[in-house]
Amino acid sequence: MHDAEDSELVRSFKETSGKETAYTAIVKKYQEKLYWQIRRMVIHHEDANDVMQNVFIKVWNGLTAFREDAQLSTWLYRIAVNESLSYLEQQKKRTSVSWDDVGASLEEKLQSEKGFDENKAVWKLQLAVQQLPEKQRIVFNLRYFDEMPYGEMSKILDTTAGALKASYHHAVKKIEAYLLDH
Amino acid sequence: MNKNTEIQSELNDLGKAVANLPAENPFDIPEAYFAEFAEYILLKIGEIERIKETEQLSPMLKTLQKENPFALPSDYFSQLNPAPQLSPVKRIGVFDARKVIRYAAAACLILGLGLLLHLILPPQIQPQLANLLKVENRDQFSEESVLQYFQELGDLGMLNAKDDGFAENNLLVDLTRESIEVLLSSITEQGISHYVSQQDLGGNQASYLIN
To answer: N- to C-terminal Cα distance for chain B?
Structure first.
């Protein structure tokens, strides 16, 4: 089901006169949800801010051609996830870190965050999430923190709902194991 | 069953340890980040579109490197805004000799004039003169004070007693040349001699006054 408000915003954006107003409304509506999804992926605020800029520049450039086959929110999440993965890929290339070591690199980033305390449950959970493979990490974040249905998630990640459910289950089991060990 | 309950139930089935954790966000973000982000991203987009516009107008420019070919003297920018040159301070001495000399000369002149007047004028006139000098607006002289002045002159014998009435009646209202001549003619030789004897003036001065 399409969000009527989003459809109206997209229509306004496509009319030249209301472009900036509609765009500002879209940014304000989705910026927090997208930011936290990105932030949990790249950890540091500076990195998340870079990704956010890339995401919303892509939105500006692509919204005119957006045909509303999918919901606006699904389209935005898809851009955010893809931009986060691209950003991590670029970082990996720059620092010559293998994908196996990406988790360790993110763990170090997490430990350098302001207010980090490994004895606190919320930080311990974040440490556990960074141990997950990339796709499981995305699925877990979308489901656990954003409470996203598997149907919507499948549109974002181009994966079946069943496969996503399996990924989520694996992720939860791994996190539980990490929490019991630490 | 709403979504939250569905997710919580799923977690309860999968693992109690995770299900009991709070889904809180421990990350810190700069203050007002979300309040300013929309405006910031619009500015950024405007900047990108200006660059794109230039590239579309002239694709050749896109191939050129944005390097500055101009040479610049070393340390140009560090010397561009030197500390402001303050104009030398003008020294003003507390003791200005020229001013002091000028004031001293003026004071000497005034004292000299005062002394001269003191020597020339009879002592009886001096208080009246001093009073006259004190008053700026002579129109303010009362008739009584002027009459008193001439009364004093008369007491000194400088005015003929018979002319007192003339002075009272006419002096203040008629100071024409003729009236002054009449007034002067009323001064008797006897009165002048009396004045000279009182002032102890020399013979030459006395004859000068009489003539």
So the answer is: 142
Q: What is the ipTM of this complex?
A: 0.83
DSSP state of A141: I
Look up residue B78 and give its two tokens: 């560090």
Burial (CB < 10 A; 0-12, 13-18, 19+), residue A142, is: buried
For residue B23, what is the nearest residue in chain A, using CA coordinates? A145
- For residue B7, list chain A residues with Cβ-Cβ distance below 8 A: 143-144, 147
Distance in angstroms (rounded) separating the CA atoms of residues B76 and B68: 15
**What is the rounded CA–CA span in Å between residue A38 and residue A84?**
6
Q: List CB contacts (< 8 A) between A24 and chain B.
A: 38-39, 42
Residue numbers in chain B where pLDDT is lower than 50: 1-3, 161-164, 166-167, 170-171, 206, 209-211
Q: pLDDT tens digits for A12-63? A: 999 878 899 999 999 999 999 999 999 999 999 999 999 999 999 999 999 9
pLDDT tens digits, residue range B72-127? 888 888 887 766 666 777 776 667 778 888 888 999 999 998 888 888 877 666 66
Residues of B in contact with A34 (CB under 8 A): none
Chain A / chain B CB contacts < 8 angstroms: 89
Report the gap between the CA of B26 and the closest CA in chain A (Å). Answer: 6
d(CA A93, CA B183): 126
Q: Which long-range contacts (CB under 8 A, 24 or more apart) does B102-110 make?
A: none
Q: Which residues in chain A are closer than 8 Å to B44, comparing Cβ atoms?
A: 53, 57
Residue B51 touches chain A, beta carbons under 8 Å = no
Q: Is A68 left (phi over 0), alpha (psi -120 to 50) or beta?
A: left
